């Protein structure tokens, strides 16, 4: 992850972290490193362990194995368990967690009061923090007199007021409507760059993760599936599971024979296999012998790789199952062989239930080898 030279943040190292509940793993052999000022998004289906990791980083939960280091100092593991107040954190939760009986200013000031700063210093810094999130004029109000978006800005001001080394976000925008979410997400992204704290940001929302983060960790069943920049994640998902979770397109069972990709019915989908599987040559699998060995796997067809047209000469036939107008085009659902759905945005209106030919841009396809058989 790219270091930010002006960062106030701390380097975070997570080594083989584990959290078990009975014999169930909420987190398993999880390792990750964040440079100071780096922003990491945790993305994954419900129950994959995102909140567990956040709680372990915060010191609200104790690992069953592995360790966490901030700037080379052990926070948890090896018999150490630093409490949250010793970790110099700021946290922002889904439900804002403001104190209703306190003014906006008093909410933001609270972490500074806990540190025993003088009253004028507390007031000055709390006001400054509110200005940063655009709420300088609302200092005297109570949280109940603010909208949801404004309350979350107060929570943000409170999280950054004590200049934490690490900021933790637990789905901070999921209670807000789409427009507000988009604008606050951009504001959080800007603020993170300004304050330079290292940050870990839990979300279900792919776009939010990619807007806010330098790198995204895709998780499933307590494990890290892929850690990559947003651009890499979208262009080079590491496995069919990641591609499926990110809804990158349709996955079809397929067979590679020499330079071609064939579907289950034998139809040739693409000729240009070597061009579409970067990395295959490097791992040695495509040495002269191996290149000609048939391989079973899955091919990923992204929505943007297909152009509907005549049935003749098309790589695939598909049925139009649904179409509706959306932002300058037609959001279209196509049914591919085997009943697999493919979603794509098209310029043209297609007739419902009609069969169309799909012409494929082979370089947009991705190949995933089937997992080797166990035993
Ligand atoms: N106290 C607990 N006792 C038993 N199992 C738990 C406990 N806390 C979490 N789990 C289990 O650990 C797994 C990971 O939970 P976690 O809350 O970290 O998931 P998550 O990715 O944050 O999910 P969501 O997106 O729904 O918030 C889940 O299977 C959950 O049921």
UniProtKB/TrEMBL annotation:
PROSITE patterns: ABC_TRANSPORTER_1, ABC_TRANSPORTER_2. Residues 12-246 form the ABC transporter domain. Keywords: ATP-binding, Cell membrane, Membrane, Nucleotide-binding, Transport. One of its GO terms (biological process) is quaternary ammonium group transport. SUPFAM superfamilies: P-loop containing nucleoside triphosphate hydrolases. Pfam families: ABC_tran. InterPro entries: AAA+_ATPase, ABC_SmlMolc_Importer, ABC_transporter-like_ATP-bd, ABC_transporter-like_CS, P-loop_NTPase. GO terms for molecular function: ATP binding; ATP hydrolysis activity. It comes from the Bacteria. PANTHER family: SPERMIDINE/PUTRESCINE IMPORT ATP-BINDING PROTEIN POTA (PTHR42781), SPERMIDINE_PUTRESCINE IMPORT ATP-BINDING PROTEIN POTA (PTHR42781:SF4). This is ABC transporter related protein.
């Amino acid at each position: 992850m790219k270091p930010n030279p002006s960062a106030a943040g701390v380097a975070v190292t997570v080594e083989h972290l584990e959290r078990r509940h009975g014999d169930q793993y909420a987190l398993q052999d999880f390792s990750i490193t964040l440079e100071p000022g780096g922003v990491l998004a945790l993305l994954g289906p419900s129950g994959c362990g995102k909140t567990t990791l956040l709680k372990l980083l915060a010191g609200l939960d104790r690992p069953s194995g592995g360790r966490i280091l901030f700037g080379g100092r052990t926070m948890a593991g090896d018999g150490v368990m630093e409490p949250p107040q010793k970790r110099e954190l700021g946290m922002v939760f889904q439900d804002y967690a403001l104190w209703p009986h306190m003014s906006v200013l008093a909410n933001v000031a609270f972490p500074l009061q806990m540190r025993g700063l003088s009253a004028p210093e507390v007031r000055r810094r709390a006001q400054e923090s509110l200005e940063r999130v655009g709420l300088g004029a609302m200092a005297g109000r109570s949280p109940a007199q603010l909208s949801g978006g404004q309350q979350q800005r107060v929570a943000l001001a409170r999280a950054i007021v004590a200049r934490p080394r690490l900021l933790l976000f637990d789905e901070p925008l999921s209670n807000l409507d789409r427009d507000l979410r988009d604008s606050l997400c951009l504001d959080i992204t800007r603020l993170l760059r300004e304050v330079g704290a290292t940050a870990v940001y839990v979300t279900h929302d792919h776009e939010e993760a990619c807007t806010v983060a330098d790198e995204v960790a895709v998780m499933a069943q307590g494990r890290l599936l892929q850690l990559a920049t947003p651009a890499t994640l979208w262009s080079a998902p590491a496995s069919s599971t990641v591609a499926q979770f990110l809804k990158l397109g349709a996955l079809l069972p397929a067979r590679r024979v020499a330079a071609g990709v064939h579907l289950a019915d034998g139809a040739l989908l693409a000729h240009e296999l070597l061009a579409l599987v970067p990395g295959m040559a490097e791992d040695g699998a495509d040495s002269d012998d191996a290149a000609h060995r048939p391989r079973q796997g899955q091919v990923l067809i992204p929505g943007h790789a297909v152009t509907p047209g005549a049935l003749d000469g098309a790589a695939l036939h598909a049925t139009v199952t649904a179409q509706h107008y959306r932002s300058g085009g037609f959001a279209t659902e196509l049914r591919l062989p085997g009943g697999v759905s493919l979603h794509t945005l098209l310029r043209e209106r297609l007739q419902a239930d009609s069969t169309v030919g799909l012409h494929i841009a082979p370089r947009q396809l991705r190949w995933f080898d089937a997992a080797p058989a166990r035993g």
